[in-house]
Amino acid sequence: MIRFSLNGLEVKAATGSTILEVSKNMGFPIPTLCNLEGLSSMGACRLCVVEIENYNQTRLVTACTYPVTEGLTVRTASTRVIRARRMIIELLLASAPQSKRIQDLAAAYNVRQQRFRQEYENCILCGLCVRMCKEQMAAGAIGFQGRGQTRSIGVPFNRKSEQCRLCGGCLYVCPICELRCTYTEPEKAVCGGCANISPPCLENLGFDDMMCYMEPCVACEIKKE
Question: For the whole prediction, is pTM greater than 0.90?
Answer without folding.
Answer: no
